[in-house]
Amino acid sequence: IKARCCSQATRARKSTHLMKLTVGRGHRAATTVARRLAHVPAAAAGRLRVDDKLKAFVDDELLPGTGVAPSKFWDGLSSILEDMAPRNRALLDRRDELQAQLDAWHRANPGTPDPTAYAALLESSGYLAPAAPPFEVCSQHVDPELALVAGPQLVCPVDNARFIVNAANARWGSLLDAIYGTDVLPGDRAGAYKPERGAAAFGVAHSLLDESFPLEGEATWSDVTALSVAMRDGGAASLQLSLASGGEASLRDGAQFVGFLPGVPTARSVLLGKNGLHVELQVDRSHRIGATHAAGIKDVQVESALSAICDMEDSACTVDAADKIVAYGNWLGLMRGELSVPMSKGGKEVLREMNGDRTWTSAAGPGSVTLPGRALLLCRNVGLHMYTDAVMLGSEEVPEGIVDAMVTAAAAMHDLQGNSRVTNSKTGSVYIVKPKMHGPEEGAFTAELFSRVEGELGLPLHTLKVGVMDEERRTSLNLRQMMAATKERLFFINTGFLDRTGDEIHTSMEAGPMMLKADLKGAPWYSNYEESNVDCGVALKLVGKGQIGKGMWAAPDDMAKMVRDKGAQLAAGASTAWVPSPTAATLHALHYHATSVKEVQGGMAARAAEIASRASSQAAGLMTIPLLPAGGKSLSADAIQRDLDNNAQGLLGYVVRWVGQGVGCSKVPDFDNVQLMEDRATLRISSQHIANWLHHGVVNEEQVLETVKRMAAVVDKQNLGERGYKPLAPSFDGPEWHAALELIFKGRDIPNGYTEETLSRWRRVRKAMEEVEEVEQLFSKDAGGGKDELKKPAPEVQISPSPPPRPHA
What we know:
alpha/beta
């Protein structure tokens, strides 16, 4: 162990000199250093070399019970990689080729381009794909949570077991907790339970029930003192509500009464429904909360997150085989229905498990109503640009997304074959979200990959469904063609506006300086992007077969504003939108009660001619580059510095947690100490925005370095007392610091502006250094060889902020 870690120490120190590595615009030019930082023991697996622990996980944990032998799995993966890895590389080279043409054209034609000439460039280069022949989305066997019922969608890193179990269980959430514990209800919510605040929370809940489930006449839910169920001939039931006035009331729409759990003298549970979603009123006068309510209601449970994305990509931090095994293992546990997490609650140790389904007596007649107790689980794999050394083909790293597809599908076979304690897909499908695809040829590649995986694992054709993230500019401009390439597997299109903003900056890097970051969402490209996505989904008949999705609410502590604003996404035609927490899912679910997405989308479909007529104007808007007027000369120095401060602080705040602590997604305080959900997409925006302004002289190198150092002190202060935090100042010499500088000063040259390669490489440096520190402590009393090597100080690092020339692939 000591010998290995001495070697690791040397490698880690050498890696600190890598800031001067040449990072060109092309993917080939992005030197892979990760391999140098960790020894990867390899096990023979057919023609592959596989990390021995990853192979053991697949052979001993993943595959038993699927009917797939290890030799079949590895031979199948090897066959797919032999055929498709070179084509994966060719698609990345095509990205570089197109980017080089755009860069050259913008250098020759700086500033806002002539629309006709710019469109001609995009067409002649192939950036704009030929129009697809007439088609409709024809996906089959899609679960109703995606195809038929509109509702919130969670996104959660799959490498965090506690988070992902909570996300799976977020199908139902307490409305009272969501109101009491957030700013939806003004006032002090800290400390012990406050009865007066609890009563106010009930008041808000009553008003929401009045909106979704109004009572006959003038009665309101605040008047109700008891809930009882009257049985009728034939087994049907009706809901009778006793009022404080001594009278009775019933629902204005009796069909909203869906089910109940009988009790004496009143029902223990009443299930109501609207727009395909449900609310459960739980009654227990002996409960400490129920005892305070006139009708004995102890909780209002809202059907919340209909689906949850188990994320292996932007919100996760998986940089090596060990990290991937954790992520794969958690996905496997979810597909077996057995993932659990020990937790401390109320001073007691409890085991948090995946919830079972819920059953009520049907109000419509004899029989029962059973609803899922968990969100439908989807898995987001990594993009085509990610490579891994956990599996090697000869001496070459392989596309990580291909490995992801095989493991994701194999794990889901436990669910498909009934080996799971609970059922995920009731229609026999596996849902894989595919991010960061550029254009329809990459969509076709993904569809073929899924076919190959199905063949190797013995799954029926089209078992694997694809969710297309509309988050890259070339996909937005060719979304119809992308949908045509995936039409038999498509289960959602989603506007990932954060990554889309980063790509907007990077694609037009040479055109000129970009608008202030806060102004980018107000530019023409953004509104046309959001509108075009919905129009394509409606026009191409995705409705009824999949979702039209909208992006994340990034302020998890500002739930009052979310409740006010996020309903607009449904009015625009979305059938789902992303939320950052189970609590947010519960509150966002109320928007789906207030707005019938089915009616909105139906109205849009009836205006097919209108939708078709605005496609050309949307394309023109999408091609409008969000440049600063007059090259930014009208901006004040204060406005420039404020934007630079904001970008630098957000960038550092995220990088220190990703590189230093292995946290892929978390609440990060911004420059004004407002907590925001940050992941690699927000980092992409900040790094690309600074790189763009630096390139065009809006800011200079000295100003950027001074700002980053000053913001480092702010970030250190914001993380004061954070367990495991490694300060940036005063040394400015850790992996976190070097990663941040690389993202800024080489951001213009990093392929597509993606942050993953830089973050992963420096995270591996940090992990190696931590391993050295552990062994130093182990052998602190050892006077033998190796100690001196461990104790040698790392050489001082000289870093020039000047970016290198921009070679192309």
